[in-house]
Amino acid sequence: MKKQMQPVDAAALLEEHGFKKTPLRLLLLEILSISPAPLPVSTLQRKTKKLGADLATLYRALNAFVEAELVQAITADKKKALYELNRPKIHVHHIMCDSCNTVETIPFCIKSLDQQAINVSRLFKKIYSHQLAFVGTCRKCLRAVR
Known about the structure:
CATH class: Mainly Alpha
Low-confidence stretches: none
Distance between the termini: 28 Å
Oligomer: single chain
CATH topology: Arc Repressor Mutant, subunit A
Shape: globular
Mean pLDDT: 84
């Protein structure tokens, strides 16, 4: 069983990043803050259904959060994005199945890649963040193919 994350102060987070405190934005951040794993839009839509927001509004809110780096979109392809709250003190990477969208968190980071990227770059001298996602096929999907 996955451990539930600690909720964040969604109102303070929205204010800090210059967002209006709408019921949808507050609820989205609360949902993402307690989720132990990244969530697909279908789950977020189901959990915010009581607010009556349409799918376009949900996507606009998520895209604004991704742009503001409040939320990270994890994708194997554009149609299967999963979303999770960015937590600066908890840096993780993922392995994602390109068939069923299963995601597993990898509990380590290869920080030396940042320095290697700087060493080979002719244009950049500082890296503030990075994203790394492995995409493959999970055991369940591999067995289903056999």
